[in-house]
Amino acid sequence: MSPIAYLFERFPSAGQTFCHREVQELIRQGADARIFSIRSAEGDVPPDPLSPMSRVVYLPEESALTAEVTRLIKEKKLPGAAIRALEKWGRQTDFLRLMQAAFLGARLREEGIERVHAHFAGMAARTAYWIREFFGIAYSLTAHANDIFAPRDFAVSLPMILKDAAAVVTVSDFSVDYLRTRFPAEAEKIHRVYNGVELQRFWKAENPADPPSLISVGRLIPKKGFRTLIAACARLRRSGRRFHCQIIGEGPLFGELATQVANAQLGNEVQLVGPLGQAAIADRLATATAFVLPCTRDADGGMDNLPTVIMEAMASGLPVISTPLAGIPEMVEPGVTGLLVPPDDPVALAAAIDGLLRQPAEARLLGARGRERAAEKFSIETNVRLLAAILEGR
User: Fold this and answer.
1) Lowest CB count within 10 Å: 128, 246, 271, 321, which one?
2) CB of 313 closer than 8 Å to CB of 366
3) C-alpha distances out from residue 150 to 224, 255, 303, Å
C-alpha cells in the first residue's frame, strides 16, 4: 500500500477509540500510515513506542502556523493556487483550514504522499478538501454520525466534500443508504466498512453479579439516552426489582444526571462512574449482566450511527438493549442478540430490562449469539483489510 496521510481533528481521543484501533491494525497489516492531528491529544498516550500515537504529528497552533505559512510563501514553496486562495479568503470563517492545508500539503508533497484519508466529514475533511485544491493530492474520508446526519454549515459544505472525495467510507448500511439517497451522483464511491473490535480484548461475561448488574458506556450527552435509562431505573426500583446500574463516561450532562439520580433516590442502584480506560471498561463488561444504551435523536437530528460500545458489549457476550436508530439494528437483532425499544420511552425500557432479568438463561443465549455476531461482522482485522482495499482503489 502506498504511503497515506491519516488526518484527524484530534488524535488520540478518548471518545474515538475506534480510530486508534483502525490505524493500529492498518499499520500491523503493513500500511505506511503517517498520522497527523489538527488539535492536541485527549487522554493518556500509552508508553508503547510502537503505538500509532507515538507517530502523531500535531499541526502548529495559529500563531506558529501563520509564521510557517508565511515562510513557505517567501520561500516559494506553495503553489500559486494556494497563495491566491489564502489572499482572497483572508480571515473569513474557517480560514485556519486553508492555512493548515497549505502547511500540511507542502509537507506531504515533500514526503511524496499522494493520498489523504480524513476521519469525520468535518474539520479534517475540510482541510483535506483544500489540500486537494492546492496540491492536487487526492483525499478520501470516513463519515460517522452527526457529521452527516446533522452537519454544521461551513463554506466548504458536506456536498462539496463528498463530490471531490476519491472515496467515501461510512460505518453502517443505514448511513450508506442515507448518503446514496441524498447524493446519488456520488453513490458509486460510497462504501460501508464497519468499525472493528479486537475480540481478544474482551472476554465472555459470566453474569455472576447479585443483584444483576446493568452497564452503559458513553459520553454524557443527550443522544445517548441516559436520562431515559435513569427514568427506567426509577421505575424498576419502585417495582421492587433488585439491580445495580453503572453509567461510565463523562460529559456536560454529568450534573443534571447526578441530580436526576438523587431526586429519584437511586443512590444505591445507579452509579455515575465517570471515565474509565479501555481495560477497565472491559473488566466491567465481563462482570455485567446486560448492556443498555437507549440512544435517541438530538433536537437538530443528530444521532449515533453504530456505537462501538455496543460491539464491545457483544464481544463480551452481553445481551444488549438499545433503540432501533441508524445502524444499531445491524448489531442488535431483537430476540437474537438483544432487544430494541422505542427511544425516549422509560416505560418500555424498564419492561425490557425487567423481562431480560427474569429470564437469565435467555439473556445468556442472547449474549452468546451477540458474541458470535461480533466475531462474524465486526472483526477489526477483516474490516481494516476491506478499508485498505478501498483506499488503494481496489
Assistant:
1) 271
2) no
3) 16, 26, 8
